[in-house]
Amino acid sequence: MEDVSTPHESPADLGARRAAEYLQLVEAGRTEDADALLAGLSDTRELVFVGAAFTAQARRTGRTLPTAMRAQASTRQVQLGQLRDRSRRDLDGLRDWLRQAGEEVLLVTQLAETARARLGQPSAR
C-alpha cells in the first residue's frame, strides 16, 4: 500500500491563515485571544509571513478606495513598513507592527465599505 501524505501548508499560506484568524478574533472583540495568537509566534519568519498577509490585504483593499483615501492608506503603509524595518530583530516590536498592520486592514476595509455604500456599489464582502 502506498503512503500518501497530506501536502504541507506553505509558510505564506500559514501566514495568511493566521492573519485571517487574528482579524476574526479582533473583529469579534476577542483581543486577548488575538494577542495570544501573536504571542504564540516565536519565530521572526512566522511573524513576517503574517505581516505579509496583512500588507497584501490592506494594499489590495486600499486600491479600491477613492483617490484621497487611497493616498492616505498608502502613506500609512509606508509608515508601517518603517515600523517593521525598525523592529527587524525585536520579536515584541514585530508583534506591535502586526497589531498595527491588522488595525490598518480593518480600517481600510471599513473605509472601502463606506465608500462603496456612498457610491451605491455592492459590498465586496
Task: Describe what this molecule looks like in 3D.
The protein is an all-alpha fold and 125 residues long. 75% of the residues lie in helices and 0% in strands. It contains five helices and no strands. The chain has helices at residues 11-27, 31-39, 44-62, 67-86, 91-119. The longest helix has 29 residues, at 91-119. Mean pLDDT is 91; it is low at 1-5.
In terms of DSSP E residues, the strand content is under 5%
Radius of gyration computed on alpha carbons: 16 Å
| Count of helix runs | 5
Mean pLDDT: 91
N-to-C span: 45 Å
Low-confidence stretches: 1-5
Indicate the percent of residues in helices: over 70%
The ordered string of helix (H) and strand (E) elements is: HHHHH
Brief overview:
The protein is mainly α and 125 residues long. It has helices spanning 11-27, 31-39, 44-62, 67-86, 91-119. The chain contains five helices and no strands.
